[in-house]
From TrEMBL:
Notes concerning its domains: Has three domains with a flexible linker between the domains II and III and assumes an 'L' shape. Domain III is highly mobile and contacts RuvB.
Taxonomic lineage from the root: Bacteria, Pseudomonadati, Pseudomonadota, Alphaproteobacteria, Sphingomonadales
Region described as Domain I: 1-64
SUPFAM superfamilies: DNA helicase RuvA subunit, C-terminal domain (SSF46929), Nucleic acid-binding proteins (SSF50249), RuvA domain 2-like (SSF47781)
UniProt organism field: Qipengyuania pacifica
Function: The RuvA-RuvB-RuvC complex processes Holliday junction (HJ) DNA during genetic recombination and DNA repair, while the RuvA-RuvB complex plays an important role in the rescue of blocked DNA replication forks via replication fork reversal (RFR). RuvA specifically binds to HJ cruciform DNA, conferring on it an open structure. The RuvB hexamer acts as an ATP-dependent pump, pulling dsDNA into and through the RuvAB complex. HJ branch migration allows RuvC to scan DNA until it finds its consensus sequence, where it cleaves and resolves the cruciform DNA.
Gene3D superfamilies registered for this protein in UniProt: 5' to 3' exonuclease, C-terminal subdomain, DNA helicase RuvA subunit, C-terminal domain, Nucleic acid-binding proteins
Keyword terms of this UniProt record: Cytoplasm, DNA damage, DNA recombination, DNA repair, DNA-binding
Protein's name according to its UniProt entry: Holliday junction branch migration complex subunit RuvA
Amino acid sequence: MIAKLKGLLDETGVDWAVIDVSGVGYLVHCSARTLNALGNVGEACTVYTDLQVSENDMRLLGFAEAAERDWFRLLTQVQGVGSKVALAILSALSTGEVQQACANGDAAMVARAQGVGPKLAGRIVNELKDKAGALPGGGMGSAALAPTPAGGASADAVSALENLGFKPAVAARAVAAAQGELGEGAGEGELIRVALKKAAG
């Protein structure tokens, strides 16, 4: 599968771009934010991609950053959200705003996207609310909102749990709970030990 393209921006349209990679032009469908982030025609660019294959179509979706691609994949898992609707959402909202909307259950914010009605927006925030903390908010105008506890020891503890196979959101919540129980001065070893119990439980 094609995961990333690095080349020259050859041509752009309303919702697509052609990336020239060593003489081969790849047509990628993009959100408005990605198109703006790619720069001018003729300039070097990097696009993170997702290949979608259906019975009668094969299309490459392009994203200026990996966080946007991750959110695209998450959005398209929701019933009723195809690639066109997902790109519309990511055109209207930054990845950080999508994350904030899902985390806060703010369907009205998601409904700002073209072609997204209140009912679909409500389904999106309800289904993705628990997953909102697992993905970075990314750049493109907003800060990441992932609930990673601050501080060296807690950050290292979260990393340790992730290395053991726990999802980022689960690891972050477990370490945050452990820190709340042990106090701010807890060391990395203590945090990991308590967080493991909480994550496993």
